[in-house]
Amino acid sequence: MKIGKIGRLALLIAVFSAFFSLVIKGCEYFPESTFQLANDSRLPKWVSIPPGLTRADVSVTMNYYSMPIVDDAQFILKDRKGKVLAKVSGKTKDLRPKRQPFDYPAYVAITVNGVTDIIEHKRMEPIFYVTDDPAVWKELPDE
User: Is residue 98 one of the residues assigned to a domain?
Assistant: First the structure.
């Protein structure tokens, strides 16, 4: 069976699309960086504890990604046994983009489904916090 020029082009597009989709999906497993929510921090606004559980029963992992097509941050809520209870993704905005590298504390506004919360990195460690500091919230640009 002979494939014409249009058939080869369609096949090439299909193969490229499948490959690109796998690459994007595969990036979910390779975040740029991963952080755990501090035990003494409140949960981000878009993370809800299921009925019957308390804050002490859950943990939240945040992954940053640097792929331009996918969301920049992902939050994973797990119970004590490590079972994934929820996953949400959102877009990031550095609140102090002109700061020097390794200048802490660092703040990142993250918006998930239209709701924004501010993440704080107090120092270079794999821990993050959610901040309610009014001075930091004033830095959030009006959009």
Answer: yes
Average of pLDDT values for 104-117? 93
Query: What are phi and psi for residue 10, nearest 5 degrees?
Result: -60, -40
Structural contact between residues 85 and 58, judged by C-beta atoms closer than 8 angstroms: yes
Neighbouring CB atoms inside 10 A of 6's CB total: 8
43-82: pLDDT as tens digits: 999 999 999 999 999 999 999 987 665 558 999 999 999 9
Could you tell me the two tokens for 119?
A: 């993440």
Residue 42: give the domain boundaries.
33-137
| Residue 44 φ/ψ, nearest 5 degrees | -60, 155
pLDDT at 97 (0 to 100): 66
Q: Say whether both 37 and 25 belong to one domain.
A: no
What rounded mean pLDDT belongs to the chain? 84
**110-114: average pLDDT:** 94
Q: In whole angstroms, what is the distance from residue 112 CA to residue 48 CA?
A: 13
Question: How many structural domains are present in the chain?
Answer: 2
